[in-house]
Amino acid sequence: MVTLRVLTTDDRPLWRALRLAALTDAPNAFKARLVDWDRGEEERWHARLEFPGAYHVAALLDGHAVGMASGLPCAADIRELRSVWVSSEVRGRGIGNQLITAIETWALGSGGAALKLAVLPGNEPANAFYRRNGFMATGERGDVLPDGTTREQIMMKALRRT
Ligand SMILES: CC(C)(COP(=O)(O)OP(=O)(O)OC[C@H]1O[C@@H](n2cnc3c(N)ncnc32)[C@H](O)[C@@H]1OP(=O)(O)O)[C@@H](O)C(=O)NCCC(=O)NCCS
Fold it and tell me: N or C, which end of the chain is more exposed by having fewer CB within 10 Å?
């Protein structure tokens, strides 16, 4: 049984474990790299947990952490979906959908009108997953990746109150 748990600043150990699992399990899905963990990534990661106005969710399957997603305030009424990950052992069971729904609910509740995300070029499974969840490519390019040339692709979804 999958449950979602909202993380607080007291959840550093779980937060750290989730991030390390994500970077190990899906090294090509994120701009951040495991190799940078001891070169500042861990501090950046803990700072994210404490970022004002942020919302972090862990997915637990029978009590084991198997996924995560974050929502961050962006500009004005835009919220940002970040760091979506589901363990490769339990993909395809709807956990990713549950995580996105949780972040969308938070985004609407915090006054957001749209949710934005950045996906790496070539991450086709994530692209398909986001399109299935109503996100559309904007054509906008995001940050430059560690290779110095490739850039993230930005996707956006307008949020509607039901
Ligand atoms: C992308 C990811 C989060 C999806 O998680 P998941 O739990 O497997 O997704 P779900 O089972 O909830 O699937 C949700 C929907 O997306 C679709 N989908 C998921 N993965 C897909 C894939 N690889 N190809 C096509 N469609 C896919 C599903 O068919 C499903 O559609 P449905 O609602 O009609 O059934 C997961 O594959 C992952 O963690 N990947 C590695 C990390 C990553 O790439 N993160 C994104 C960084 S931007």
Answer: C
Å from CA of 1 to ligand 1 middle:
18
For the 2-158 domain, the top CATH level (class) is alpha beta
The length of the chain is 162
Q: Is the CB of 31 under 6 A from ligand 1?
A: no
C-beta of 29 in contact with ligand 1 (< 6 A): yes
What's the first-to-final CA gap in the chain, in angstroms?
27
With a 6 Å cutoff on the Cβ, whether 126 touches ligand 1 is yes
Q: Provide the residue-wise pLDDT of the chain in tens; the chain has 162 residues.
A: 899 999 999 999 999 999 999 999 999 999 999 999 999 999 999 999 999 999 999 999 999 999 999 999 998 899 999 999 999 999 999 999 999 999 999 999 999 999 999 999 999 999 999 999 999 999 999 999 888 999 999 999 999 876
Contact 130, 152 (CB under 8 A): no
Q: What gap in Å lies between CA 71 and CA 122, rounded to an integer?
A: 23
